[in-house]
Automatic annotation (TrEMBL):
Pfam families: ABC_tran, ABC_tran_Xtn. Keywords: ATP-binding, Nucleotide-binding. Residues 3-84 form the ABC-transporter extension domain. Residues 115-163 form the ABC transporter domain. Signal peptide: none annotated. This is ATPase subunit of ABC transporter with duplicated ATPase domains. Gene3D superfamilies: P-loop containing nucleotide triphosphate hydrolases.
């Protein structure tokens, strides 16, 4: 697949793309005419060689056929707009409680990240983790995903909850 760069805004892109497709179509038509002439020449030369029993005509026909085989063919431009194809599977609705953390304790050496922390997130609620560096945002997410264990307490995902995993250095994955 080939990538093309367009300059300007979206309207300029649309007009440039249409122009490129029109030019590609014209080149295709010219090439098809040339191919038809060459194929007809090959057929005529072979026919004449058979009738006259002349090797020169066979050689010329083979030469033209070789040129035809080596010819770099232009792809037919696609004018219709293709719709995006999405296959979204309907997910089951999660339970009323989506995330539940009770009695959460997590520390590193003498520094407590969480101390007897409780959290309940219900279906439909939106939550943001905001805090300074080192306050435990990533640690909490790792405990939620089961990548890290709390010192005490329990972190649970609700029924039918699937957690998307995003590592800073790798693409998004789904954990079931």
């Amino acid at each position: 697949m080939e990538s093309t760069t367009y300059k300007g805004n979206y309207s300029a892109y649309v007009s440039q793309k249409e122009e490129n497709l029109r030019i590609q179509y014209e080149h295709l038509r010219e090439q098809q005419k040339k191919i038809n002439v060459m194929e007809k020449s090959v057929t005529n030369l072979r026919d004449w060689a058979m009738r006259a029993d002349n090797n020169k005509f066979f050689k010329r026909a083979a030469s033209i056929q070789k040129k035809l085989d080596k010819l770099d063919r232009i792809d037919k431009p696609v004018f219709e707009k293709r719709n995006m194809k999405l296959d979204l599977k309907a997910a089951e609705r999660s339970g009323k409680e989506t995330i539940k953390a009770t009695g959460l304790v997590k520390s590193y050496a003498d520094k407590f990240i969480f101390k007897d922390t409780n959290l309940m997130v219900h279906y439909g609620e939106r939550v943001g983790l905001i805090g300074p560096n080192g306050s435990g945002k990533t640690t909490f997410l790792k405990m939620l995903l089961g990548e890290e264990q709390p010192d005490r307490g329990v972190v649970e995902l609700g029924a039918n909850v699937m957690a998307p995993i995003y590592h800073r250095k790798s693409p998004l994955k789904m954990k079931s």
